[in-house]
Amino acid sequence: VCDGGNNRVQIFDAQGNHLKSFGSQGTEDGQFEWLHHLVVDLRTNNIITAGNRNDKIQVFDEDGNFLHSFRLYQILGDATDKFNHMMIDREGNLIFSFYRRDYEVFDTNGNFLRSLKEKTNTRTVSEGYYLAFDHQNNVLALNIWGHCLHVLDKDWNYRVSFGKRGKYKGSFESPHQIVVD
Length: 181
Known about the structure:
This protein is an all-beta fold.
């Protein structure tokens, strides 16, 4: 659990038993300033975090031991455009969505890989999107304001879109999350 107000990560088992917690308030390694994002690299079980008040990305092992960190804006050179979502795909790439720019892709060591230019036909995948990745690493981009879902291939080429605003089957009203099993 990304426990932002307490600046910690809490880990529970499937029965709800608390297993461990790590993190505290601060700016040092292993500390957080309003913890806001958390993903798990399913290939390594490493836990990757980001705060809402800074651009520090931290990587921990599955036991909560600090491994390393990096700062997005030292790499990108632009601290004016804060990211709003951090996701990880099935290949272990970290994807950051920003308010006024393309998605930026990094590996978990902080190496910049590429910017993703979205190819969604006449529609754009920009702010207001939540992403998920299916078993073939296709991108499922949920559009909050467009009330639809875009499906892109793993290279971010447009495949199909569906949904519209409404309350009937197959329609959405400001969808806010997507999960793929």
